[in-house]
Amino acid sequence: MLSYQHGYHAGNFADVHKHTALCLLLRDLARQSSPFFFIDTHAGRGRYDLSGPQARKTGEWKDGIGRIWAMKVASEGLALYLSTVRAVNGGGALRTYPGSPLIAARLARPVDEIVAAELHPAELTALKRALAAFADVRIERRDGFDALAALTPPAAGRGLALIDPSYELKDDYARVPASVGRALARWPDGIFAAWYPILPEGRHQDLLAGFGRLAGAGIPVAVAELHRPAPGRGLAGTGLAVVNPPPGFEAAQEAASAEMADFLFKGAGRHGVRQLTGS
Ligand code: SAM
User: Fold this and answer.
1) 21-43 tens-digit pLDDT
2) Dmax of the chain from CA atoms?
3) Coil, helix or strand for 130?
4) From CA 31, how far away is CA 26, in angstroms rounded?
5) Cα separations in angstroms, 164 against 14, 92, 133, 156
6) Could you give the CA distance from residue 198 to residue 189 in angstroms, rounded to a whole number?
7) List of residues 6+ apart from 66 with CB closer than 8 A
8) Is CB count within 10 Å lower at the N or C end of the chain?
9) Phi and psi (nearest 5°) for 164?
10) Given a cut of 70, is residue 279 above it in pLDDT?
């Protein structure tokens, strides 16, 4: 049984970066009136209490959403992200942090199809509670990679898969791009966003090599990263590989990342969005 629980990390700088990109991708899909499909392969519990024991133990959110919450932001990505987090808090003080399935449920329309897969029993129970108001969201207790294989291509034709494992299993660094490659063979127009941690061991290079092979086969892959200025223990940075990014995504995520670096790291740290070239 895997032990990772996202409550220790919810709202940290990696979530700010990942969830801003998620907001931009969903907002882009919602611009067209036809329905879209969204699958969250590793959904988590959907809603995180920032005064709960897990959040209190690490306090990671204070160096993430906590630093941005009261700011006036200029980039469309951060503005959209903040308005989503603020809406979850009912316009009041910051108490609750939305996970990816709750963000998606809020940005999707009734015509869209949303599926959230989660394996951890306690997280699954909490997820069902967090999304109780969104009866149309399908929550499945199943392996996220199996769900991606079984549910794509979707009937809607267009859409997004968020692949956000905990990387407790080191195989995940190779498994993520491999499963995206197989899904692309069935669903070439799908957008796939895969999160990865940047750790001192550098295992994310295996994942980037896998996505590089897709780029080498002519598939557009953008990589967005945000690195802490003085990495110590734990996360040195955060990354997202986006296959088939929609037009405008890279510029919008770049502008949002520059603003994040200002608010989170006082302008230090490194950030950027680049196209992967084939390997
Ligand atoms: N996507 C969430 C967000 O952004 O709010 C965070 C997800 S967290 C990083 C990873 C989640 O995947 C954990 O809740 C874990 O229980 C779950 N998980 C681990 N292995 C899984 C698997 N094989 N299939 C589905 N979920 C899994």
Assistant:
1) 999 999 999 999 999 999 999 99
2) 49
3) helix
4) 9
5) 12, 29, 24, 22
6) 28
7) 11, 94
8) N
9) -140, 60
10) no
Residue nearest to atom 9 of ligand 1 (CA): 166
**194, 217, 219: which is closest to 25 by C-alpha?**
194
**Ranges of H-type helices in the chain:** 13-29, 53-58, 65-68, 76-88, 100-107, 121-130, 144-151, 172-186, 204-216, 249-265
**Positions marked active-site:** 164
Q: Which of 5, 42, 179 to mutate to test the pocket of ligand 1 (most atoms within 8 A of CB)?
A: 42
Choice from 114, 125, 166 to test ligand 1 binding pocket (greatest atom count within 8 A of CB)? 166
Q: How far apart are the first and last CA of the chain?
A: 35
Across the range 186-204, mean pLDDT stands at: 96
Residue 82 Cα to ligand 1 middle (Å): 23
Ligand 1 pocket, 99 CB below 6 A? yes
Please give the full DSSP string across 141-191, using - where no structure is assigned: -S-HHHHHHHH-S-TTS-EEEEE-----STTHHHHHHHHHHHHHHH-TT-E
CA-CA distance, 45 to 47, in Å (whole number)?
Answer: 6
